[in-house]
UniProtKB/TrEMBL annotation:
Pfam families: BPD_transp_1. GO terms for biological process: phosphate ion transmembrane transport. It is found in: Cell membrane. It comes from Methanoregula formicica (strain DSM 22288 / NBRC 105244 / SMSP). It comes from the Archaea. Residues 87-301, 432-639 form the ABC transmembrane type-1 domain. This is Phosphate ABC transporter, permease protein PstC. InterPro entries: MetI-like, MetI-like_sf, Phosphate_PstA, Phosphate_PstC.
Length: 650
């Protein structure tokens, strides 16, 4: 590798060449700075355009009336724009989802971290990641076809599209996030804690429940907060199963009542509203409220995780994140609140469930002193194992339902023909190609900006104010709900820039959405490159850019590629960002240019499932193709990551 910098026999020591090298280095650094600042610019533009279009409703109705008004009736003779029922619906669905997902997630995380053998762990972790890879519209389709029917039959009600259905479905979607972050938090507890506990005679379960979990409590709290953010920002799944009635359940704990969330309202009404109308402004007002809620949630989780990371690197003499006594109080209060809420919910489902659960709890408390620690450990391990089995069963049920019913639809004609009769007949070829076009354009836009931003953050700057601002921008962008990206794309790209509903508008919108993923995965890859390689290169006379381009980036390429594949998988499965920016339901032709609208598999499945009766086989076939496409990308990323990790260890 030649780092001498000789050019036509002139060494870098000559004045002109030195100036050229300095100019080149400054230019490269400036370019990387602007790629890093791009995330901050995007967040600023999102806030600007959302507030710009939301301002009229805030001015006309008033912020207090808008937030706490009891009726949402924008199409009535006298329109009413009170979003309190939508806020309550969002909170109730989120509460139910957490009650469902948190116990299962913690049990599964404990099993993966502390009980599973290396071989079992190697299977469970990818399975959880695959659960995260299922597109939200596929979850919604499964919920609409299977889950709502189960609820309708079980409780003998006219429709299964209820608060319960939405909470269970979103709880399933939150499982991978909570499991992954909680497992990482538990695994990160210093090994000395575990060894010390076992050395003084504690059982494995006592060590887990009284040492490891309390020590990881801050990380677990961050996992739950991130799960809440995942639920609050979800659009398509909740739109398809919640019933979409803009009412507050009566009584408030009636989990069999339909309701509507903030995101579902945007998804349902944005496509039909006249641009510039009061209703249009009200929807952007909802987007502002939703964005503020999700950003607070996600930034709280980021702050907790950052504090946890700092705590791991502090000396032993410093104070822990939470004192042991405080931890015990927090855990006890959380348990009591969860039990109280659970009893209320069970009472609303069936009058006898709550007394049965309460009696079982009393029997446990009464019999607890007479049980040996060994029996308690056996019972606890059984419950933890059961939670893991339930998570795997959920994954199996969803995948098997889609595969079993979707396989009969798969044939050459289905994959290569255009749709007919509103998608009931024909194939999905334009939707497949449209999805690939959208994904290819999105990653082509996001990858240069993401890699450039990561290079600047790792190689050109130290931790300081500028870095903190950029990282905050990336965190804010990462926490922005997908439906908000869709509204921003519509307001800025489609209308303001005049691009129109088109392939290009969808590609740009998806690129903005996956940009944080590219930045974070690239940043982690660059950080894993040994510092000694950089120092050796610079010692040989290489410039900063030569070191980065020829020494640092090449070994980081596998990680960068993995991040790109994960971004492709996410972009391929998204519906909300392209609903208002890029897609049409049916088209016999492929787009002639980037300024034409396209078909896409997620949107095609959504319309088939919600608006086209009598197309069961094609619905399942579309869901299976989308599932195979997205999970295929995730599987490739997982295999690539595992391969390079094993290669690095070897």
């Amino acid at each position: 590798m030649d780092f001498t910098g000789k050019t036509n026999g002139v060494t870098p020591r000559s004045g002109n060449t030195v100036r050229l090298f300095v100019l080149k280095e400054r230019s490269v650094k400036t370019v990387f700075f602007f790629t890093a600042a791009f995330a901050v610019i995007v967040v600023s533009f999102i806030l600007l355009f959302l507030f710009r279009d939301a301002y009229p409703i805030f001015a006309d109705v008033g912020i207090a009336n808008f937030l706490f008004g009891p009726v949402w009736a924008p199409t009535a003779a006298e329109p009413l724009y009170g979003i309190w029922p939508l806020i309550v619906g969002t909170l109730l669905v989120t509460l139910g989802a957490m009650i469902f997902s948190v116990p299962l997630s913690l049990g599964c995380a404990i099993y993966i971290s502390e009980l599973a053998s290396p071989k079992v762990r190697a299977v469970l972790k990818p399975a959880v990641e695959l659960l995260a890879g299922i597109p939200s519209v596929v979850y919604g389709f499964f919920g609409l076809i299977v889950l709502t029917n189960v609820i309708r039959i079980t409780f003998d009600i006219p429709s299964g599209e209820t608060w319960l259905a939405a909470s269970v479905l979103l709880g399933i979607m939150a499982l991978p996030t909570i499991i992954s972050v909680s497992e990482d938090a538990i695994s990160s507890v210093p090994h000395e804690y575990k060894e010390g506990s076992l050395a003084i005679g504690a059982t494995r379960w006592q060590t887990i429940s009284q040492v490891l979990v309390p020590a990881a409590l801050s990380g677990i709290a961050a996992a739950i907060i991130l799960g809440i953010g995942r639920v609050v920002g979800e659009t398509m799944a909740v739109l398809m199963v919640a019933g979409n009635a803009a009412i507050i359940p009566d009584p408030i704990w009636n989990i069999l009542s339909p309701l509507r969330t903030l995101t579902a309202t945007l998804g349902i009404e944005m496509g039909e509203v006249p641009v510039g109308s009061e209703h249009y402004s009200a929807l952007f007002g909802i987007a502002v409220v939703l964005l503020v809620i999700t950003l607070i949630i996600n930034l709280s989780a980021v702050a907790i995780l950052h504090r946890l990371k700092e705590r791991r690197t502090t000396t032993a003499g410093k104070q822990p994140f939470l004192a042991p006594e405080t931890r015990r109080k927090v855990v006890f209060i959380a348990e009591m609140l969860a039990l109280a809420v659970l009893l209320v919910f069970l009472t609303s489902v069936s009058w006898w469930l709550a007394p049965v659960i309460l009696m079982a709890g009393c029997l446990w408390l009464a019999g607890r002193p007479y049980l040996s620690e060994k029996r308690i450990q056996t019972l606890a391990f059984c419950l933890v194992g059961l939670a893991t089995i339930i998570v795997l069963a959920i994954l199996f049920i969803i995948l098997s339902d889609i595969v079993v019913h979707g396989l009969p639809a798969l044939n050459w004609d289905f994959l290569t023909q255009t749709p007919r009769d509103l998608g009931r007949e024909g194939g999905i070829f334009p939707a497949i190609i449209g999805t690939l076009y959208l994904v290819a354009g999105a990653i082509a836009i996001a990858l240069p900006f993401g890699v450039g931003a990561a290079v600047y953050l790792v190689e050109y700057t130290r931790e300081g104010k500028i870095t903190k601002v950029i990282r905050t921008g990336v965190d804010l962008l990462n926490g922005t709900p997908s439906i908000v990206f869709g509204l921003f794309g519509f307001a800025f790209i489609v209308l303001y820039l005049g691009v129109g509903v088109s392939l290009l508008a969808g590609q740009i919108t998806l690129a903005l959405m996956v940009l944080p993923t590219v930045i974070r995965t690239t940043e982690e890859s660059l950080k894993n490159i040994p510092q000694s390689l950089r120092e050796g290169s610079l010692a040989l006379g290489a410039t900063k850019w030569q070191t980065i381009s020829q020494v640092v980036i090449p070994p980081a390429v596998p990680g960068i590629v993995t991040g790109a594949i994960l971004s492709i998988g996410r972009a391929a499965g998204e519906t909300a960002p392209i609903m208002f920016t890029a897609v049409v339901f049916s088209s016999r032709f492929l787009p002639d240019s980037v300024f034409d609208p396209v078909m896409a598999l997620p949107y095609h499945l959504f319309i088939l499932a919600t608006n086209v009766p009598g197309s069961s086989m094609n619905k399942y076939g579309t869901a299976l193709v989308l599932l195979l496409l997205v999970i295929g990308f995730y599987a490739v990323a997982i295999l690539a990551r595992t391969h390079f990790q094993n290669k690095a260890r070897g």
